[in-house]
Amino acid sequence: MAFAWKAAGLTYNRYLTVAARAVRRSLKDGPRAAAERRGNMDLRFAKWENGKQGEVKSLAKANDEALAAQAESK
């Protein structure tokens, strides 16, 4: 049986992001503000090829670009 997030065309990381956002938005004002601050991240990554580091990219930006490319291909 396929997972619902797979059937919806989401990656597991995107599914977790959506679920976490829904939980944060359901909290009362005080805890919501603290939870939203914890939810902001700036992750970066780089691909390594032949022992050399490639360009360092923001994970959020790369994810947005991948989603846009996937939407265009459909």
UniProtKB/TrEMBL annotation:
Family under the similarity heading:
Belongs to the eukaryotic ATPase epsilon family.
**Which CDD domains would you find in this protein's record?**
F1-ATPase_epsilon
InterPro entries in the cross-refs: ATP_synth_F1_esu_mt, ATP_synth_F1_esu_sf_mt
Q: Which residues form the signal peptide?
A: none
A molecular function (GO) term? proton-transporting ATP synthase activity, rotational mechanism
Pfam families per UniProt:
ATP-synt_Eps
Output the GO biological process annotations, alphabetical, semicolon-separated.
proton motive force-driven mitochondrial ATP synthesis
The protein in question is named Mitochondrial ATP synthase epsilon chain domain-containing protein
Question: Which species?
Answer: Aspergillus brasiliensis
Q: Name one GO cellular component term.
A: proton-transporting ATP synthase complex
